Amino acid sequence: MADENRITLTPDTPVRYLKGVGPKTAQRFEKLGIVTLSDLLCHYPRRYVDFSKPYSIAEAPADTECVVRAEVFAKPGGRILPGGRRMERITAGDAVSGLEITWFNNPYATRKLEIGQEYYFQGIVTGGMLRRQMVNPQVRTPQQVTASPFEPVYPQTEGLSSSVIAKCVAQLLPHAELLPDPLPPEMLRKYRLLSKAEAVRAIHRPGSEEEAHAARRRLIYEELLVLQLGIGRMKNRGAAATGAPMRQADPEPFWQSLPFSPTGAQRRAVDQILADMAGDTSMNRLLQGDVGSGKTLVAAAAIWACIRAGYQAALLAPTEILASQHAENLNRLLSPFGMRVALLTGGMKATARRTTLAAIRQDEADLIVGTHAILSQGVEFARLGLAVIDEQHRFGVRQRGMLAEKATNPHLLVMSATPIPRTLGLLIYGDLDISILDELPPGRTPVKTRCITGKKRRDLYHFLDQEIGRGRQVYLVCPAIEDTPDGGLTAVRSYYEDIAKTLLPDRRVGLMHGKLKPKEKAAVMEDFKEGRLDALVSTTVIEVGVDVPNASVMVIENAERYGLSALHQLRGRVGRGAAESWCFLVSDNSSETVQKRLKFLCSTTDGFAVAQYDLETRGPGDFFGSRQHGLPTLQIADLMNDTRTLHAAQSEAAALLAADPLLEKPDHALLARQVQQMFDAAGAMN
Ligand code: ADP
Ligand code: MG
């Protein structure tokens, strides 16, 4: 270790103090998120190369990375090939077979190999039984393998290979005790966990599979505990005295004003919300309901009650299209009560924006509907009492916090159609109470879903033409805006020109995509909604929320590109009226998994079943991409497979927080710090 005599190592010492780490390497480490010694110690291997169970040459699997043990028979020496490449070669073998090993441009490769000695070679064995070969393998001596039978393979980056990282880590391992152990000793004993230092040492250099397993178990436990503590602490913080006290409202006048009756589920959700808003602490509630279950109406009732009580309300939506649709619908519902609705989006003209901001500040607007423009600094509410976030999965925990900070502890309602299986829901939304809309408004017929190939496109368009003839409208969704060089994707523009307009020559076809100006988007949407367009060719910008009940067919091109939950969302754009509705998944991809996945969607319209299938086949990534919810990405734990550890961590976290709700006791300082670090990285607690 460089300068060992002069500097005292701490977990926060920068990695550049390590021997062999100059400014360049330090920069590369930073790319991997590694700045300090503690970051490096906690950069765990992705997997190991197992030298402990070498293959015999004859049994080495073909064309796969593996380790074989062989004795060196001869070292004929190196030579220069035509073209200047250098080649070293040895012959080796075991009791049964021979092996020819070659290295290119590595003059030192054979220097230390001794004839008559056994070595371990790691690489790919090729060739037939009679002439087995290996090119550029890694070599280890039996002594090396005994000392370190499992070699770590690290996530690497350009210019910083796994083996360089391994060398740096190896220098540090004698100092693993530097890392303080955040877990109290009783807990280690109770769950028979390794100490932090033991676990860190073992995960980098396990002596056996059991040791690697024990190390992982301990580190996974710690990670899940810290995650649970963070979520629990957020919840405890959220349980502050409300800044918008109100009396419990009776929703009847609002229900009476509607042209239809609310569903039982809508009534129940609204009752829960109104009770929350009449409590001493501010509401933190998630409204979960499948596409089309009528979440907007529930939000409207809550907003109505809030304005009645003398406060302002805000509704945040992920896209401009959705925001203006909400503003229009809510205006229709609320204006009969004399309530004033304002729309605030990023695409607004400066003067319009200024007028709207003044209205918000002076309490002349009762409900403000908008995109994330609502979160910007210039927006000051006179008396915000309720913040609603639609399609929560499109935002992060962070935006949730930013909106809530526009006032002192307003009530918060978040809505999501992404149905999340319960165990994951507890994690993502652990800090929220949950209401579920498990009932669709009456008169809906399930959307009929079919998989077809591009060959059937003409028939499909014939069908579309018929539907349009019956007064219906159709959506056509394609993935990308520009043509891709590989030609594999259907670009929305050329699809619009060459396919949709050609195959529907007598129909009015519109084009919608994310690169249009907000005004253009609004105009196209308006045309479609008002029936001035028969068909809309679009990218997935229409995925969330868009509500045009007269649309009855959804065609999704390159359907294989999307997760089932996204397809389900898109399908949810139709089947909103009483008419029979259709969804066509067009794909020329014949892979079995793709076909199975698409068939599954044809077989069900239940959003929970769809999410469960996605989860089982694609893993929790779709739910846990940190972008979607703002919670930390986990480094080592796997929420689907580590469920037993998860439950243990869950109950320990609950017990800890019961005794110390905000983790303020000195005994918990290390855990609190760890929580802060984990959630800071995700931007969730700011
Ligand atoms: P989502 O839950 O997907 O956000 P929306 O709020 O967009 O669903 O509602 C879908 C459609 O159902 C809208 O056209 C809405 O007007 C209609 N709707 C909502 N509640 C009812 C109800 N109780 N009876 C009839 N139609 C309803
Ligand atoms: Mg909606």
Task: Describe, in plain words, how this protein is organized in 3D.
The protein is of the alpha/beta class and 686 residues long. It contains 24 helices and 22 strands. It has a 7-stranded parallel sheet with strand order 12-13-11-14-15-10-16, with helices on both faces. Helix 6 crosses helix 7, helix 7 (209-238) packs across helix 24 and helix 9 (264-277) runs parallel beside helix 10. Mean pLDDT is 87; it is low at 1-5 and 625-629. The structure holds adenosine-5'-diphosphate and magnesium ion (MG). Magnesium ion is lined by residues 295-296, 390, 545.
Index terms:
686 residues; alpha/beta; 24 helices; binds adenosine-5'-diphosphate; binds magnesium ion
In what range is the share of β-strand residues?
15-25%
Please tell me what the overall shape is. globular
Number of helices: 24
- Give the ligands present: adenosine-5'-diphosphate, magnesium ion
The radius of gyration is: 31 Å
Give the total of beta strands: 22
Ranges with pLDDT <50 over ≥5 residues? Answer: 1-5, 625-629
N-C termini distance: 37 Å
Percent helix, as a range, is: 25-40%
Please give the order of strands in the largest beta sheet.
12-13-11-14-15-10-16
- SSE-based structural type: alpha/beta
Largest sheet: 7 strands, parallel
Mean pLDDT: 87
Blueprint (SSEs and pairs):
Blueprint: H1 23-31, H2 37-41, E1 47-50, E2 65-74, E3 79-80, E4 86-93, E5 98-104, E6 118-126, E7 132-135, E8 138-140, H3 142-147, E9 150-153, H4 162-172, H5 185-190, H6 196-204, H7 209-238, H8 252-256, H9 264-277, E10 284-289, H10 295-308, E11 312-316, H11 320-334, E12 341-344, H12 350-361, E13 367-370, E14 384-389, H13 397-404, E15 411-416, H14 422-428, E16 433-437, E17 448-452, H15 457-469, E18 473-477, H16 492-503, E19 509-512, H17 518-529, E20 535-538, E21 551-556, H18 564-571, E22 582-586, H19 592-603, H20 607-618, H21 621-624, H22 626-629, H23 643-659, H24 669-682
Parallel strand pairs: 5-7, 10-15, 10-16, 11-13, 11-14, 12-13, 14-15, 17-22, 18-20, 18-21, 19-20, 21-22
Antiparallel strand pairs: 1-9, 2-4, 2-6, 3-4, 4-5, 6-7, 6-8
Helix pairs in contact: 6-7, 7-23, 7-24, 9-10
Bound molecules: adenosine-5'-diphosphate and magnesium ion.
